[in-house]
Amino acid sequence: MVRPSSLSGFPEWLPDGRVVEQHVLDALRRTFELHGFAGIETRAVEPLAQLLRKGETSKEVYLLRRLQEEGEQDTADADKQLGLHFDLTVPFARWVLENAGQLAFPFKRYQIQKVWRGERPQDGRFREFTQADIDVVGADTLPFHYEVELPLVMAEALAALPIPPVRISVNNRKVAQGFYEAIGLEDVEGALRVIDKLDKIGPEGVARGLIDEAGATPDQAAQALELASISGTDASVADQVLALGARSELLDTGLQELVTLLEAARELSPGTVVADLKIARGLDYYTGSVYETTLVGHENLGSICSGGRYDSLASDGKRTFPGVGLSIGVSRLLARVLSDGLAEPTRAVPTAVLVAVTDEEHRRTSDRVAKALRARGIPADVAPTAAKFGKQIRYADRRSIPFVWFPGEDGDEVKDIRSGDQAPADAGSWEPPAEDRWPRVVDSQGAGVR
Amino acid sequence: MVRPSSLSGFPEWLPDGRVVEQHVLDALRRTFELHGFAGIETRAVEPLAQLLRKGETSKEVYLLRRLQEEGEQDTADADKQLGLHFDLTVPFARWVLENAGQLAFPFKRYQIQKVWRGERPQDGRFREFTQADIDVVGADTLPFHYEVELPLVMAEALAALPIPPVRISVNNRKVAQGFYEAIGLEDVEGALRVIDKLDKIGPEGVARGLIDEAGATPDQAAQALELASISGTDASVADQVLALGARSELLDTGLQELVTLLEAARELSPGTVVADLKIARGLDYYTGSVYETTLVGHENLGSICSGGRYDSLASDGKRTFPGVGLSIGVSRLLARVLSDGLAEPTRAVPTAVLVAVTDEEHRRTSDRVAKALRARGIPADVAPTAAKFGKQIRYADRRSIPFVWFPGEDGDEVKDIRSGDQAPADAGSWEPPAEDRWPRVVDSQGAGVR
Asked: What is the pLDDT of residues B288-325, one digit of tens each?
């Protein structure tokens, strides 16, 4: 007898948690579609060679092998060996190249799928989780304004979820690189790697690291630290940077982009976006704006939505496809929502009405009532047995089904089992209150969140 | 440079195909929820021991291995070795056992997920595909009426899809077993295996097989063949069986169940369900009703939706969980819909309105229009560049976006680019025709299918 057991790192929800997850996924999809993003899905597997293009992530890949291959030579032939995708960016890049001839650019897509990472589960890391990505990709060129648009789409998407407010922190590769070059700090990537540790090792550790690892002079290290300390929500950020005295064309471009983003955000999503020049994560592969998102009051969760601008998502040798994209870690976010009780469903089943069965000979009568209700979009179920009505009501109550319907020879009646109110009703015209028709997701105070 | 290429057996759709797929998945979900089925998802992986419980399917399993395990001892330790699920029944059985204490029975669930089978792709078989399952599972008992209800839910779900009508063929294990036992044919499973080949090897081949492989006398073989030739849509099916002269308690029960199912179907889903007593596939593990579904005019596709009654979906040693379930092979069905052009979307992007940009300095004006439209649930996008209006209109046209919006200092105008009609409009109140708001799926004649 195989004993079932949960597998660490592979989360599953009970039906009530799934109602919340489905609500989250529906809300994300709706926002993305309102903004004109087309939904796509890619296969779960990619050739290993495709997955290893970035090299460093190789340790996270799950490889696949057919059971009957057992014993066959299984050295990884990267051309044929398949692995599960560990994000949605690598498959999307491959998909764009494969289908470029049939797409109209700029192409905006959203993609909500499971991804897998073969890491040892720890610190709440999942081995299987859902990501929700949006990207816009151009053919050879892609205007800067998408670097403003995409984080604001995500701000709107996240605002529609049953979660606390978010803060989107932004930086721009051009600002950091332009500044470092202006002060003569040549190892830009090295400097960014050290700056990324600021929260962990503090300013003195970073200064030492910049000198030891990135070849900075003590003065350059001090200036880089001053840059990293700057934050703000408007054009004053640029003034603070310029006050440090360094100038370069790249720095000017970067500051202009950063301020444009901040000003648009102040109008279209006030209070959400803040420039934070110590953000370095991702600056080594993004080429313009970068984004990180924290949940206010849950900063220990880390970034729940990250991304940035890349000048080459993919290239087929003739054309290059630049893009801007962000990705929400849905499962980790949802795990926090459920574990902290930030939101819950009004019920775990879709059913709004349980139709009682008087006796088994008359089950068809109850079936007809349910059919009439469903035909008008009211989720209905029929009692499993013609037990005493008290037992049938308890069946509904245990599932938080709000209404029980009693077919009768002299006319039907429907009972709101919460209030006990019972009244005559006709299956061809009766309507439940709008808030009872489908399960809703409510916050911990019981207020509707959507 | 890694050349992208499609992988045989791993289907992917372009955005227009995905609109049709999403429409299908939405329609299935809606029907299942109207009938009170709760949606769940299970992890993609199961321990190999769980996947191999049925033994015979072992050849289809994809095993997982982390890349950094490479070179480690990799004989399959069935306790730790993980494989991708090849259906949704095995994971559901495990999930029910694992969560039985927190579920209310009978428990009705639907589950729409990808599954994987490591077969060599051939005859249009997929290695990755989507299944849509419904099951009801009881604790220790489950009333017969669910064997009537579940195929009718599927009939309703399939009727809501952009596909031709379906025929659900049904049989009942009790009829076959009861009949065979009544005529003294003892090797019931053996006989069912032979009968299953009727379409392939014909009646003479089956008669020989029943004698050679199932130990039947020539007379028993002839009677079994007569049983298998019976079909019909009402109680006459039982009369035909009884006219063969054999009687047993099990046979009577089976015929009563079969007729009950047919009569309910004639009322609730007329013209859909037919009894076909030569159906043997699945009778070796189902214990009551079995179902197969063909698409009228596309019988060569095989069964698109199958299932049946099982007395033990799972057991924890104390409780046994009987169930009734059916599963739709969504990807195979969808591949046929797309390849035969049975349905297509009115457009491949969600966008109903493209807001033109007069010049880049006024992009924010266009952003505000789009925001106002989206706030009222109208999918809107903003033109990528402030090109000449003719070029912006072509951008919309290439994506079948029906409306282009022109912001103006003296008031805005909106153009239906199909008719060329242009009229003044206000972003706070203008409404597109209902059929243009979201992409719709239409049949090959252009008529709305939903």
From this structure: 999 999 999 999 999 999 999 999 988 988 999 999 99
Name which of B35, B61, B264 is nearest A381 (Cβ-Cβ): B35
Q: Which residues of B touch A378 (CB under 8 A)?
A: 34
The number of C-beta contacts closer than 8 angstroms across A and B is 236
Contact call for A95 and B4, based on CB within 8 A: yes
Q: Residue B70 and residue A76: Cβ atoms within 8 Å?
A: yes
Closest-CA residue of chain B to A368: B268
**Spatial contact of B195 and B298, defined as CB atoms under 8 Å apart:** no
Whole-angstrom distance, CA of residue A9 vs CA of residue A17 = 17
Distance CA A347, CA A339 (A): 17
Chain A residue with minimum CA distance to B376: A34
How distant is the alpha carbon of residue B387 from its chain centre? Answer: 45
Q: What ipTM describes this predicted complex?
A: 0.94
Query: Residue type for B413, please?
Result: E
Complete DSSP assignment for B303-362: -SEEEEEEEEEEE-SS-EEEEEEEEEEHHHHHHHHHHTTSEEES-SSS-SEEEP-S-GGG
DSSP characters over B27-45: HHHHHHHHTTPEE----SE
Sequential DSSP letters for A193-246: HHHTTHHHHHHHHHHHHHHHHH---HHHHHHHHHHHT-EESSTHHHHHHHTT--
Nearest-by-Cβ selection for A374 from B14, B34, B102: B34
Q: Which chain A residues are Cβ-neighbours of B98 within 8 angstroms?
A: 4-6
How far B147 CA lies from chain A's nearest CA (Å)? 12
Inter-chain touch B47–A2, beta carbons under 8 Å: yes
Q: Are residues A73 and A184 in the same domain?
A: no
How close, in Å, is residue A12 to chain B by CA atoms? 6
What is the least distance, in Å, from the CA of A188 to any CA of chain B? 26
Whether residues A43 and B5 touch (CB distance < 8 A) is answered with no
Q: Write out pLDDT tens, residues B219-253.
A: 999 999 999 999 999 999 999 999 999 999 999 99
Please give the residue range of the domain that contains residue B410: 353-443
Q: Work out whether strand B128-137 and strand B320-329 pair parallel, antiparallel, or are unpaired.
A: antiparallel
Residue A320: give its domain's CATH number: 3.30.930.10
Q: Which of B315, B344, B373 is the last residue of a domain?
A: B344
Residue A8 pLDDT > 90: no
- 3-state SS assignment for residue B414: strand
CB B119 within 8 A of CB B127: yes
- Dist CA B248 CA A369 (whole Å): 37
What are the Cα distances from residue B41, in Å, to B35, B96, B179? 18, 12, 40
List pLDDT tens digits, range A200-210.
Answer: 999 999 999 99
- A70/B61 touch (CB, cutoff 8 Å), yes or no: no
Position with higher pLDDT, B120 vs B8: B8
- Is A404 a member of any domain? yes
Mean pLDDT of B284-289: 90
Distance CA B417, CA B425 (A): 15
Question: Quick one: pLDDT at residue B336?
Answer: 94
Look at B98 and A70 and tell me if their CB atoms are within 8 Å: no
CATH number of the domain within which A364 lies: 3.40.50.800
Asked, for residue B298, whether it belongs to a domain, the answer is yes
**Could you give the number of structural domains in chain B?**
2
Residue of B nearest to A398 (CA): B104
A202 and A186 part of one domain? yes
Please report whether residue A272 resides in a domain: no
CA distance B7 to A252: 46
DSSP B448: B
Q: Which member of A41, A264, A371 has the closest CB to residue B268?
A: A371
From A2, A61, A99, residue closest to B14, measured CB to CB = A99
Residues in chain B: 450
Of the residues B64, B108, B256, B450, the best mutation for testing chain A's interface (the one with the most A CB atoms within 10 Å of its CB) is B64
